[in-house]
Amino acid sequence: MYHIHVYFPLQQQDKAQALNEIIRQERQDVLRVFPLVCKLVGPHKMPMFELHVESISDEFIAWLDTIRGGFSVLIHPVSDNELRDHTERAIWLGRELGVFEEKLEA
């Protein structure tokens, strides 16, 4: 299982919502597309929306990189070590924002 976080500035909320809808419509391999979260939550340093996928492929990453519209994207596996998942095992598309590591369990 992988989680994907698409980060956006609040002034681009409409653009982020449009991207959220494109993903919902075009990708059956995305298990869940969450609504936009327009505030800081958990370890995340910007508003974001989240996707869940069973696995990632080069094709999926290339597709997401093409449509992300300049937004930063964090892709990470899900294991019992949240800190490592969000840092050492993370893949970033666009500018790497990092996370608030103190909010994650090792």
TrEMBL record:
Domain of life: Bacteria
GO molecular function: dioxygenase activity
Pfam families listed in its UniProt record: DOPA_dioxygen (PF08883)
Keyword set, alphabetical order: Dioxygenase, Oxidoreductase
Matches recorded under SUPFAM superfamilies: DOPA-like
Protein name: DOPA 4,5-dioxygenase
Native source species: Vibrio owensii CAIM 1854 = LMG 25443
Classification lineage: Bacteria, Pseudomonadati, Pseudomonadota, Gammaproteobacteria, Vibrionales
